[in-house]
Design brief:
The structure holds 2 protein chains of 2 kinds.
Chain A (H helix, E strand, L loop, with lengths): L1 H28 L12 H10 L6 H15 L14 H36 L4 H15 L2 H15 L14 H35 L2 H8 L4 H14 L2 H22 L5 H11 L2 H29 L10
Chain B lengths: L6 H6 L26 H11 L1 H19 L34 E8 H5 L9 E10 L2 E9 H4 L18 H37 L1 H16 L2 H12 L3 H10 L2 H15 L3 H8 L4 H9 L4 H24 L11 H10 L6 H28 L8
Antiparallel strand pairs in B: 1-3, 2-3
The chains are: A mainly alpha, B mainly alpha.
Chain lengths: 316, 381
């Protein structure tokens, strides 16, 4: 098992290295110049470029860049968005709210999705099942930003229940909860539908198996048999659905954050790309890569723990 | 006797006189009383029974036709600006008599004196004044204003309203649909072609080739989708083709894996062995004998990938990496509309409805298609 984990971590590090290299070269090759402010006197630009090693050939810059990241944990300083503030600091100030929203959406979507899926499976081809199926199609098909716009118009303007935009000066828990409810719900709809659809299919398949027939024969009701015997079986592979969902939520969060003006990673990424703040852009791309690589690693490891047959990933 | 490569053809063209019946004088088999039903006909018969999928299919066809012809319905182009007629509400000829889409707008919290001033608001444009109240000693009212007579453009009809530059949103919406669909179709077709060829080679040859090719896909798949797409667009600029390519960079991997799995399933079958014994070359084995087995799953996959590509395109537009400025796409219209959502909700409404209908239809259509192409998978998602 240890060998398996070490192997996966090693593969992950190689991928990360490739991503870091790619991001560096792609972003440095972009035509935008970092210091295009006409007010900066040429000698200042010269000093700044020297300080950031921009006057040296590309491979030397790459060397400094790698050394900074891997040996000193230094991603450079932001150039335009938050001038001369270390990129790491900028990210640190933006991270908590994004993570709060993403993790909350993931956590509320799992129980709701499981409940909906179980109800649909137990009442197969009856009204609850059809209702759940309809909602599943709706939530999976319609993009989260459409729901976000709809809720923003309906619940903050027509019926002002929630604040229209995120309230950065929220002091009480209630204020904070109110201002992140809509974004969290908008992000959670798709995961809820994914979990519900998966669990419904899985339970229905298990319900026709022989051990469930046995459970019914020994006197359990249908609901008891499903809850005690089928449900547990179906929950194990759920891990493989839930973990990659987190990457999806993070992606969706980019747009949702900009709709509700949440000062999180998403808005930072968009404005750093548009402003040409290269060190910040690279750091954010690397950050997103690390998050999704780690999720994949967790999934691989849990795969291996739950089912020893899949241990050498990729050889499926 | 035969060249290796035209073996197939040669065997097929052997004259009947070469053959003779061993046991009997004549074949006892009669002709089949019914017409044979092939794979696709069978699938089509099953598909026709599924009403929801049929309806979504016709919905998709309807939207595609609209996206082709609708921009010619009126005299505006998608770039034509009317700087005097910015942010106009929707106005549709027949419906306006019913009070829907009649080009009116409710202005709230206006000074009563201003509303009644004929220099500011021509009397014909003020349809209704209500909610009289006094705020800080000033008389304030809400009023329903006919924006088209207010702006002195009674003969103008913007069916879905106009945007912040006075461009006709109806034309832009269907131009945008056209762009979004084109991007999605091209991206998916490219993905399918690359994935099929890659997966076929990897699955057919197996061994070291397979190992190497699968390692490459693993590394590519390890890079987060969003990061790849963004890097690609940053590098090649925003434009239709760079978006298509960005969606292709990692999009083909799923297809390649699927096709490879199919090849592993079928390449050991007896009929393949028989064909190989007869000297059929690899090329023919791959494309004529094994690949057709994967047509069903590939079509299903392509149909599922299309709404995904439409979503990705709008997503990119939302984060500012969409098409170049005057060109519309559904995502660009949505993100432009989002900025003025509370003032002009209709600017978001129409693209939002269209993208939702399109995505739902494609998903339902793909589900029905999967059920009919592979009935054993019915009900699975």
């Amino acid at each position: 098992m240890l060998k398996y984990i070490v192997g996966r971590v090693f593969a992950m590090l190689i991928t990360l290295f490739i991503i870091v290299t790619l991001s560096f070269f792609v972003i440095r090759l972009m035509p935008q110049n970092i210091f295009d402010n006409p007010d900066l006197p040429p000698y200042v630009v010269e000093i700044l470029e020297k300080k950031m090693h921009l006057d040296k050939p590309m491979y030397v810059q790459y060397y400094y860049f790698l050394r900074g990241i891997f040996l000193e944990g230094d991603f450079g300083t932001s150039v335009k968005i938050r001038p001369s503030l270390p990129v790491f600091q900028v990210l640190k100030s933006r991270l908590p709210i994004s993570m709060l929203i993403n993790v909350l959406s993931l956590f509320i979507s799992i129980p709701i999705g499981i409940t909906a899926g179980t109800i649909a499976a137990l009442r197969k081809n009856k009204l609850p099942d059809h209702a759940v199926s309809l909602l599943v199609v709706l939530f999976i098909s319609v993009p989260s930003f459409v729901f976000a716009s709809l809720m923003q118009y309906g619940l903050t303007f027509l019926y002002p229940i929630f604040p229209t935009l995120y309230n950065p000066s929220a002091t009480t828990l209630r204020q904070l909860a109110m201002s992140i409810t809509l974004p969290v719900v908008a992000l959670a709809l798709n995961p809820i539908a994914t979990v519900a659809r998966y669990l419904r299919g899985e339970l229905i398949e298990t319900m026709s198996s022989e051990f469930l027939l046995l459970a019914r024969t020994k006197g359990l009701t249908r609901a008891q048999a499903v809850m005690r015997h089928a449900f547990r079986n179906s929950c194990v592979p759920l891990v493989n659905i839930v973990i990659p969902m987190f990457t999806g939520i993070m992606g969706g969060s980019l747009v949702i954050e900009s709709i509700f003006s949440i000062p999180g990673m998403g808005g930072m990424m968009i404005s750093s790309i548009n402003a040409g703040d290269h060190p910040l852009t690279i750091a954010i791309l690397i950050f997103y890569s690390i998050i999704s690589l780690v999720t994949m690693l967790i999934m691989d490891i849990s795969y291996g723990l739950l089912d020893p047959r899949i241990r050498m990933g990729g050889r499926r | 006797m035969f060249g290796r490569y035209d073996m197939d053809e040669q065997i097929r063209n052997l004259p009947d006189s070469y053959f003779e019946l061993v046991d009997q004088d004549q074949l006892a088999d009669g002709a089949l009383p019914t017409t044979p039903i092939g794979f696709f006909k069978d699938a089509f018969l099953r598909f026709k029974k599924n009403k929801v999928s049929m309806f979504s299919f016709w919905m998709i066809v309807f939207i595609i036709i609209l996206s082709v012809i609708a921009p010619f319905f009126n005299r505006y182009s998608y770039v034509q600006q009317h700087t005097q007629l910015r942010d106009m509400p929707p106005r549709i000829p027949v419906l306006e008599k019913l009070g829907i889409a009649d080009g009116t707008r409710v202005l709230t919290n206006r000074r009563k004196a201003n509303i009644e001033n004929p220099d500011l608001f021509p009397p014909a444009s003020v349809l209704e004044v209500f909610n009289h109240r006094v705020v800080n000693g000033v008389e304030v009212v809400d009023a329903v204003i006919d924006m088209y007579s207010y702006r002195n453009a009674k003969d103008v009809y913007f069916w879905f309203g106009s945007d912040y530059l006075g461009r006709d949103l109806f034309t832009r919406l269907f131009w945008g649909t056209r762009m979004s669909l084109l991007i999605a179709f091209f991206a998916v077709i490219t993905n399918i072609i690359i994935g099929t060829v890659y997966g076929a080679i990897s699955g057919y040859y197996g061994g070291t080739t397979d190992m190497l090719m699968m390692r490459i896909t693993e590394i590519l798949a390890g890079i987060p989708y969003l990061v790849v797409v963004m890097l690609f667009i940053l590098l090649f600029g925003t434009g239709m083709f760079s978006i298509i390519f960005a969606l292709t960079v990692t999009g083909w991997i799923g297809t390649a894996r699927l096709v490879r799995a199919q090849f592993y399933r079928f390449k050991g079958r007896e009929y393949v062995l028989a064909a190989r014994t007869l000297g059929v070359p690899d090329r023919t084995l791959i494309f004529r004998h094994i690949l057709p087995n994967s047509v069903g799953p590939i079509i299903t996959r392509a149909m599922i990938a299309i709404p995904g590509a439409i979503f990705s395109e709008s997503f990119l537009a939302f984060i500012g990496l969409g098409l170049q400025a005057p060109r519309p796409s559904i995502g660009i219209l949505l993100s432009d509309g989002q900025k003025v959502l509370l003032q002009y909700p209709y600017q978001t409404l129409f693209p939002a409805v269209l993208i939702s209908v399109l995505m739902i239809s494609f998903n339902l259509f793909a589900n029905g298609l999967r059920d009919s192409l592979d009935p054993t998978k019915r009900g699975e998602e």
